[in-house]
Amino acid sequence: MRRGLALAGTLLLPLAALAAAAVATARKGDPALYPPAEEEPALEVFVVRNWLHANLAVPVSALRADGPAAEAVAALPRQGEYVLLGWGDARHYRERGKTLLRMLDLWRSFLAPNNPSVIHIQALSDRPTPGTTGKPVLRLALSRAGFERLNERLDRSFALQAGRPVVAGRGRDPAALFFRSVETGNLLRVCNHWVANLLDAAGVPTTPVADTMTAGLAWSLERRAYAEPVEGEMGEPPDFGRETPPAYSGRFVPTNAAAARTGDVHFDGYRIRFETGPRWTTAPVALVAAETAQAPGRSWASLLGVEAEGLVETRRVTAGGEGPCAAPVRSLGVGFRPNGGRRYEIVLAAFATEAPADEPCAVMRYRQP
After folding, report:
1. pLDDT tens digits, residue range 199-213?
2. Who contacts 36 (Cβ-Cβ below 8 Å, separation ≥6)?
3. Are 63 and 148 spatial neighbours (Cβ–Cβ below 8 Å)?
């Protein structure tokens, strides 16, 4: 019995310490801002989450017209009634794919200090619901004054150049972009804390320790801020199965003659390292639907041999470029087959032109061994 009590104490002590830390660091919010008075018109915002990452959806019309956030929204390839705001590590958050090396990079983003960060902004054509996002959604009603404070806090997150937000690259969807942020991240400042900080600015009570995980953030908002779950049947996420090539990928082996000339390929972020030949440095330009035209009479899907419902990433080649073509490679179209979690396949269409709109000089196919 003594051993059992000792074991129970050993297990309960960390939980008690965590609970005490949650209580000690809980933020009470500002009753003058939240909740809005009954006679006051309220503004709806929505927390959209998966198992790891939370975003905040806000109405575009409520953003301060002369602020960096509104200017960033205006730069999006497509507009909508709402925008989905997210924040995260400048390297890991911008990439996709589920390779082992990328999972290790997630831990780097937690454990290394002062990691640079980016803000992700995506246009939404519909009010966020489980059906339109494919994810659980919470609704909060903010006062006008509270939303203005949230907007001010959001504007301060942007890194500015000549007074304007700086695009960091294409987003996770054709309607999205990444922008550079002045904030830094680690395990004590993760994406969910950023969402909680925006809501805290609006007067909403938050719990930083619980907010580290999305389940804790949802629990805190429902119980302390009386956030309401948005009802509805869970739909399919808009980007379901539409991943772009993984970062920090490990080895991919050639499967056609053009790729055989380069040998194996590794993706190190936006650097492409071939077994033979120099390393290419690339920069993301955009995501496009694979079903869209790459050239007259030909879609990206037919050129690369990927699913029409997938996404293709276009990139500039900023250094290197020597390889399978007679002329230096200047741009790329990158296709990706997740294959249901089995061996990934990647296709690179190389172009000698600045824009990948003509005939490729080589189409290189690779597969995980």
Report:
1. 999 999 999 999 999
2. 42, 141, 142, 143, 144, 146
3. no
User: Is position 1 within any domain?
Assistant: no
Tally of residues, the chain: 369
Q: Examine the domain organization and report whether 209 and 321 are in the same domain.
A: no
Query: DSSP per residue over 193-220, as a string?
Result: HHHHHHHHHTT--B-TTGGGSHHHHHHH
Burial 88-117 (b: 16+ CB within 10 A, else e): bbbbbbbbbbebeebeebeeebeeeeebeb
Of 93, 55, 63, nearest to 80 by C-alpha is: 63
User: Is the domain of 186 the same as that of 58?
Assistant: yes
For residues 102 and 178, give the distance between their C-alpha atoms in angstroms, rounded to a whole number.
19
- Asked if the structure places residue 106 within a domain, the reply is yes
Q: Are residues 334 and 206 in the same domain?
A: no
Pair of tokens at residue 105: 């990079």
- How many separate domains does the chain show? 2
Do 218 and 301 belong to one domain? no
Own/partner contacts of 23-28, CB < 8 Å, gap of 24 or more, are: 25/207, 25/208, 25/209, 26/205, 26/206, 26/207, 26/208, 26/224, 27/200, 27/205, 27/206, 27/207, 27/208, 28/205
The label of the residue with tokens 């609006």 reads 202
Q: What does the pLDDT look like over 231-265, one tens digit per residue? A: 999 987 776 556 677 777 889 999 999 999 999 99
Same domain, yes or no: 205 and 76: yes
Question: Distance between CA 125 and CA 127 in Å, rounded?
Answer: 7
The residues pairing with 251 across neighbouring beta strands, listed in sequence order, are: 266
Sequence-distant (6+) residues with CB within 8 A of 75 are: 165, 167, 177
